[in-house]
Specification:
It is built from 13 helices and 14 strands. It is of the alpha/beta class and 387 residues long. It folds into 2 domains: 57 residues, Orthogonal Bundle (DNA polymerase, domain 1), CATH 1.10.150.530; 295 residues, TIM Barrel (Alpha-Beta Barrel), CATH 3.20.20.70. The strands form 3 sheets. It has a 10-stranded mixed beta sheet with strand order 3-4-5-6-9-10-11-12-13-14, covered by helices on one side. A two-stranded parallel sheet has the order 1-2. Helix 6 packs across helix 7 and helix 11 runs parallel beside helix 12. The chain binds S-adenosyl-L-homocysteine. S-adenosyl-L-homocysteine binds next to strand 10 and strand 12.
Length: 387
Amino acid sequence: MAVVSMNLSTTPAPSQALRADSRVLLGLSEPELQQLALDLKQQSYRGKQLHHLIYKRKIKDIQDFSQVPLAFRNELEEAGWKVGRSPIYQSVTAADGTVKLLIKLEDNRLIETVGIPVKDEKGVMRLTACVSSQVGCPLRCSFCATGKGGFSRNLNMHEIVEQVLAIEEIFNHRVTNVVFMGMGEPMMNLKSVLAAHQCLNKDVQIGQRMITISTVGVPNTIKKLASHKLQSTLAVSLHAPNQKLRETIVPSAKAYPLSALMKDCRDYFVETSRRVSFEYALLAGVNDAVEHAVELAELLHEWGRGYHVNLIPFNPIEGSEYRRPSKKAVQAFAAALESNRVTVSTRQTRGLDADAACGQLRNKFQKSPLPTDSDNLQPEEDVAVAC
Ligand code: SAH
């Protein structure tokens, strides 16, 4: 696993951490926790213990750190520290085993996280956590439920990391893959996404190559991401082979022409040696013709070699005119790409009956938080299936 050097400014240094307003343990590295122990007049191995309790044992409350002395636990709490884990407001399991969690944040906002278990041919389970990077999304891609629900704020780094721990807990299994494909646009919250990436890699011990950051394209951010030289995959949501069509599907494309986006993808490969993969949501009668596939292959060949396309047949959302293409149309599109020397995979739809499939993540508390007296409130029926 490649060791990555990353700007640590998003993770407070220990002495800074002590002064920080919100004193959250989750997100601190082992050396930072050791320093915190020293700052509180403990031996540094206590910091190592904290690290184990937070990331391996996934303990949510300082008072439950039974391995460390009560006096230290009390001191941590008196200094305003907390673990930084949030309660699960609701959990929905789809028939295929995919689990969608609604996590209630400190400001009563809800975010969605999806756990997708897949058994390989040898029967070994791969568990993918599909994490949110924002509460809602400001980008309003025409076919995505999250964009329709509005935007309220970026997530902090620990609010991203805790989603992975929550999935590990629910499945009682370690997460093997993380995809930033839940609610939100990761590149609009790059600072926290990078800090979370570092913590997931170093502290939760998920290989960089097992992490994918998906973006629809935000000007000036791909270069920034490339400068960190991560070994993770950058997935770009293309959805159209030309600017004109793309603008009708992805309104934000107007501010970031396809040629500029493709150039940034090429530069990303030059800088990181990691090929960008492209996501393409197939919308019946809109972008799913064989001619679109041929044009897409031409576009990709113009900008590089060996690009991979991931097709996502449209997952229906309420209030949308778009339709899912037939299996035959999807196969014809994939075949046209392949015969034009583009490798392609078609994403299996998972979690459809829990509204947890790609683009279906949406809840009615994206824009406004839950009422403050909601702690004892039972989740309403339509919260989980809130399209
Ligand atoms: N903002 C990021 C992450 C979004 S979700 C991005 O745009 O890449 C991850 C993928 O699901 C994106 O490719 C997105 O375009 C796709 N998606 C969103 N809604 C969808 C839907 N209803 N059906 C199929 N794919 C969808």
